[in-house]
């Protein structure tokens, strides 16, 4: 990595915390550890972190609750750890704003690869297909403005709306293909970097998150429409600047 990123590992198992700290330090990362949400909050109040590895099952506030609280205030990348391995738990993690997930037991090298991928998406130029990386600096749609350089999304009232890195990439994919029906497979190809085990349902949960941020009524979307049997369509005029 070009710089030493600071990673916060939140897990109540001391063996996992110690293993990850040693392994990530060996690979040039700065690492802090916390056993629960209380310790995590204390560390976050005094230090800057570039990414959080957050266990789903924690004493006190669980990982889902903590992820919601973090995401309400910050777009810091979050990778969820889950021992459950059920698809529904992965979906819930994505719905509340996690950028990726890794199921326990996991290979530390796999987790390191996920960390690098999420950091690359978050800090680099939007990591999507070449057609999108050469996209305009600004997109305008239905009173909204998305600056693809600063990643700032402004609503029609002029307020900034926070997007996670994956939500940003998904929105750019739609804005680059307005009024085109995109299948889940198309979107998975356009939004890169989530790993080989990304499943179709993940697209649905990400779109649900994005709708909550840009639709007047997410339950009756007018911008991101579901095309039954086909996929999704961004049904709005898009101006590129």
From TrEMBL:
GO terms for molecular function: phosphorelay response regulator activity; transcription cis-regulatory region binding. It is found in: Cytoplasm. Residues 136-236 bind DNA. Residues 6-119 form the Response regulatory domain. InterPro entries: CheY-like_superfamily (IPR011006), OmpR/PhoB-type_DNA-bd (IPR001867), Sig_transdc_resp-reg_C-effctor (IPR016032), Sig_transdc_resp-reg_receiver (IPR001789), WalR-like (IPR039420), WH-like_DNA-bd_sf (IPR036388). The modification 4-aspartylphosphate is found at residue 55. GO terms for biological process: regulation of DNA-templated transcription. One of its GO terms (cellular component) is protein-DNA complex. Residues 136-236 form the OmpR/PhoB-type domain. Keywords: Cytoplasm, DNA-binding, Phosphoprotein, Transcription, Transcription regulation, Two-component regulatory system. PANTHER family: DNA-BINDING DUAL TRANSCRIPTIONAL REGULATOR OMPR, REGULATOR OF RPOS. This is Response regulator.
